[in-house]
Amino acid sequence: MVAWKRQLILFGGFHESTRDYIYYNDVYAFNLDTFTWSRLSPSGAGPTPRSGCQMSVTPQGSIVIYGGYSKQRVKKDVDRGTQHSDMFLLQPEDGREGRWVWTRINPAGAMPTPRSGFSVAVTPNHQTLLFGGVCDEEEEESLEGDFLNDLHFYDATRNRWFAGRLKGPKSEKKKRRRGKKAELEGADKQEHGRAGAQEPLEVVREVVTEDGTVVTIKQTLAAPGSAGQPRSDEEDSPDEAGGPVVEPSPRSNAMLAVKHGRLYLYGGMFEAGDRQVTLSDLYCLDLHKMQEWTALVEMDPGAQEWLEETDSEEDSDEDEGTEGGDEDEDSGESSGEAGGECGACAGEGWQETHGRAAPEAAAPRQT
């Protein structure tokens, strides 16, 4: 939903019950003066039914719809998800009040890879910002998600996508003195910096659950300077370039807000095996400088509470007998899988929260 003049424009979505589901591509308007809903009937070929799409208003007064997620049943108890990557423009018709028209557009530039669960915000220069998400690799009886943490910008004026690349932190070292010796040292350091920049940086994080299970998260990051942007000898030293990169880890469904040219990013979720992990960290990025992320609040894995689920009452009874009944576990009547969930991802509503669903035959997540 977006605010357009004195109206709220709502598009698509889905409804799901324990037995069936339906996706929508209808458009409604809520009048902020009369407090009434009305259904719009735009002309032209519009988006197919979907949920979780990008929706933003352009400086020209049109509404952009990008991406989204939908699924369809391929056979009994087996669903196939689709991550949409098409883009549409919803425009009011000239001289015809209340009449709208759909137009499919094909932007230039570096478009985001297909994904769902991405987050959207609007920058001070009226560009649409897209962050992260997850690309699902679905087999008939399995679902694996490749979680992302990249930035993309859509410029509606130029109808073009741009990849968001950070410049890296500025060095506060004093300018090196001039001279043959200093030049040689600078050249030597620059060569070492280039060599170091070619080596990817692997960050390994471990989350220890209450039952002692260790979830290892590995993330390979490009070292500063590997994005094709040359660095002068006055910028980061090799020691600085080889340090850990501060940035949000790959995730979907993060919260975004922009204030005074700064992007704030909070939380989200990712999956580690059959566990769903909700995040509580908070980051900030200056959109004017585009240098580096700042971690305002880091996540404390020890403060997380793991909520276990089992497939049947028998499994629950066995677990209680083995563990001495110290922990309460949900029965299979209300659980969808034998994995675990963390914080807000527990229990019902997984599909409504994250906008995508596993094949039911593989790992049903039912309300």
Automatic annotation (TrEMBL):
Any transmembrane segments, and where?
none
**What residue ranges carry the coiled-coil annotation?**
none
Q: Where is this region: Disordered?
A: 165-201, 215-253, 306-367
Q: Which InterPro entries match?
A: Kelch-typ_b-propeller, Kelch_domain_protein
Domain of life per record: Eukaryota
Q: Which Pfam families match?
A: Kelch_KLHDC2_KLHL20_DRC7 (PF24681)
Give the residue range of the signal peptide. none
Bias (Acidic residues) occurs at 306-332
Query: Could you tell me where the Basic and acidic residues compositional bias lies?
Result: 181-194
Any idea what this protein is called? Kelch domain-containing protein 4 isoform X3
